[in-house]
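re: the backbone from monday

yeah here it is again, tokenized this time
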């Protein structure tokens, strides 16, 4: 990609919602506002913060910390199978690693 090509981005709260990490979009916005989400290891506090492919997000979900790499932006909040195409799970926990064995 050339330097003049603009990077495709999306609002952080919208991406978390489209990737189905949180059901109501307001919940993802609330989590970001409370500074519980990191983008490339930097805490962010604005739901409007933009993310794009290659960004690594770290955030709490249920009783665990998720480490997710943004792979695609997505057009809508579709089925779970579609949502899973938007990210790569970088979770190093043993329970995740053994899931496919």
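seq for it, each position gets an aa:
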């Amino acid at each position: 990609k050339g330097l003049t090509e603009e990077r495709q981005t999306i609002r952080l709260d919208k991406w978390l919602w489209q990737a189905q990490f949180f059901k109501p979009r307001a919940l993802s916005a609330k989590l970001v506002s409370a500074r519980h989400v990191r983008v490339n290891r930097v805490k962010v506090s604005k739901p409007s913060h933009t993310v794009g492919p290659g960004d690594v997000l770290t955030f709490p979900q249920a009783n665990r910390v998720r480490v997710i790499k943004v792979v695609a932006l997505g057009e809508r909040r579709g089925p779970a199978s579609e949502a899973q195409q938007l990210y790569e799970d970088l979770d190093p926990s043993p329970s995740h690693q053994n899931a496919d064995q």
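The longest helix spans residues 25-33. The mean pLDDT is 89.
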